[in-house]
C-alpha cells in the first residue's frame, strides 16, 4: 500500500520545511514534512474551520486527525482556560505536532498517536473538531462522526469541514441522523463548515 497521510508510519523520504502563517490573528511557525497532510502549507479547508470555530474559553477540545497541528494549536489559543487533545494515526504527523506546540509556546495541549478515538476511548469532550481524512473513505469519515457523538459531553459540539464535491451532502445527512440536526455555519470555495450540538 502506498503511503498516505493516514498511514500509521509513513516511509516516504523526509522533506522537512518550515511554514509561517497567521491563524485567528496570531502568528505561527510550523514544521512540516513529506508523508503528512497538506505538507506545503495550511490547507484552505482547515483555514475556513479555524476562522469559523467558536470555542468556550474553558472547553475541553479534541482535534481528530490533527496532522502537524494547525487546527488544534489554533484551538488551544482560543481556550486559554481549557485543554486541547490532538490525535492522529500518522506517527510522523504526531511528532511534528508535538514539535510545533513547543516552537509556538502552546502548553495546554496533549498530543497522541491514535487510530481515530482508540487512545481517548474513556474521555469525553466539550468540543470535537475534525477535517476528516476524505481519502481514507466514506466509512472511516462516518465512523469519526459516530464516535464523536459518543465522546461528546451533553451540550457538546462537533465542528466539521468538508468539501461539497467530497461528500458534504452525505456527511451532513449522517451527522443529522446522529445528532437530530446539523447547521451549515458557513461555506467558502466549496468548503462547508458543519456544526452539531449533542442534546438529550
Automatic annotation (TrEMBL):
Enzyme class of the recorded protein, top EC level: transferase
Cross-referenced SUPFAM superfamilies: S-adenosyl-L-methionine-dependent methyltransferases
Cited CDD domains: AdoMet_MTases (cd02440)
UniProt keyword annotations, A-Z: Methyltransferase, Transferase
Gene3D superfamilies noted in UniProt: Vaccinia Virus protein VP39
Coiled-coil ranges (or none): none
Protein name in UniProt: 16S rRNA (Guanine1207-N2)-methyltransferase
Amino acid at each position: 500500500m502506498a503511503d498516505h497521510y493516514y498511514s500509521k508510519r509513513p516511509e516516504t523520504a523526509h522533506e522537512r520545511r518550515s511554514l509561517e502563517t497567521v491563524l485567528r490573528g496570531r502568528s505561527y511557525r510550523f514544521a512540516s514534512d513529506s508523508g503528512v497532510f497538506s505538507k506545503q502549507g495550511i490547507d484552505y479547508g482547515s483555514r475556513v474551520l479555524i476562522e469559523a470555530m467558536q470555542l468556550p474559553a474553558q472547553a475541553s477540545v479534541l482535534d481528530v486527525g490533527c496532522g502537524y497541528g494547525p487546527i488544534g494549536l489554533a484551538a488551544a489559543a482560543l481556550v486559554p482556560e481549557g485543554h486541547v487533545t490532538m490525535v492522529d494515526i500518522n506517527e510522523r504527523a504526531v511528532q511534528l505536532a508535538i514539535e510545533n506546540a513547543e516552537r509556538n509556546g502552546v502548553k495546554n495541549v496533549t498530543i497522541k498517536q491514535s487510530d481515530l478515538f482508540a487512545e481517548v476511548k474513556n474521555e469525553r469532550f466539550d468540543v470535537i473538531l475534525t477535517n476528516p481524512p476524505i481519502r481514507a473513505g466514506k466509512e472511516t469519515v462516518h465512523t469519526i462522526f459516530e464516535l464523536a457523538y459518543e465522546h461528546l459531553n451533553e451540550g457538546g459540539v462537533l465542528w466539521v469541514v468538508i468539501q461539497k464535491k467530497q461528500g458534504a451532502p452525505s456527511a451532513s445527512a449522517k451527522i443529522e441522523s446522529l445528532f437530530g440536526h446539523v447547521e451549515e455555519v458557513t461555506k467558502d470555495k466549496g468548503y462547508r463548515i458543519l456544526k452539531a450540538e449533542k442534546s438529550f
